[in-house]
Structures are given as structure tokens and as C-alpha cells.
Amino acid sequence: ETVRIDVVQLPTGAWFDPQLVDGERICVHGNPNMLTTDHGTSRLAQGCAGSHALVQIERFDGEAPALTAFSPPTFVKSTG
């Protein structure tokens, strides 16, 4: 109710979980950093400039992909 019409608010704090879904690279856990570029505010500060982004929203009707952000990586024993 407090967000303007045509404005999207996305909470932060999701673990980064990038996957290919229908040929598109998305974060299935909802990390908003996928929507912004990784540019600092200046050469001196290097603060986060990704607080605002122009986005286009499309409805996703497929089955939700499995979250993998909390699964440990697969370790391969070295033969060397």
C-alpha cells in the first residue's frame, strides 16, 4: 500500500543463487544484485550504487527452480 504505482520494491538479503532458467540467467533466490550493475559510487568511495534500477517485469508461469544456495559444493578428490 505504501509503494507507488509502477514502482517495484524488492527486499534485499537473499543469497546469490544464479541459474539458467528457460535460457535466461536469473537468481532463483531473488537477490536484487542481478538487476543492477556492479559500479562503485566513485573511485574513492566504491560504495554501492545499486539502490535503484529500471526493470521490466514478466510473469513466470513455470515450475519454481530448486534453490541451491544452501547446498554445499561438490568436492572432487585430486588424483595428482
Shape: flat
The largest sheet, given as strand count, sense and whether it forms a barrel, is:
2 strands, antiparallel
Structural class: little secondary structure
Round the mean pLDDT to the nearest integer and report it.
Answer: 83
Span between N and C termini? 60 Å
In what range is the share of β-strand residues? 5-15%
SSE string, helices as H and strands as E: EE
- In helices, the fraction of residues equals under 10%
Strand order of the largest sheet: 1-2
- Low-confidence parts, pLDDT < 50 over ≥5 residues? none
Contiguous helical run count: 0
Report the radius of gyration as a whole number of Å.
Answer: 17 Å
Total beta strands: 2
Descriptive key words:
two-stranded antiparallel ribbon, 0% helix, flat, single chain, 80 residues, little secondary structure
Would you kindly provide a written description of the structure presented here, covering whatever features stand out?
With 80 residues, this protein is mostly loops. Helices cover 0% and strands 10% of the residues. The protein has no helices and 2 strands. Strands 1-2 form a two-stranded antiparallel ribbon. The model has no long low-confidence stretch (mean pLDDT 83).
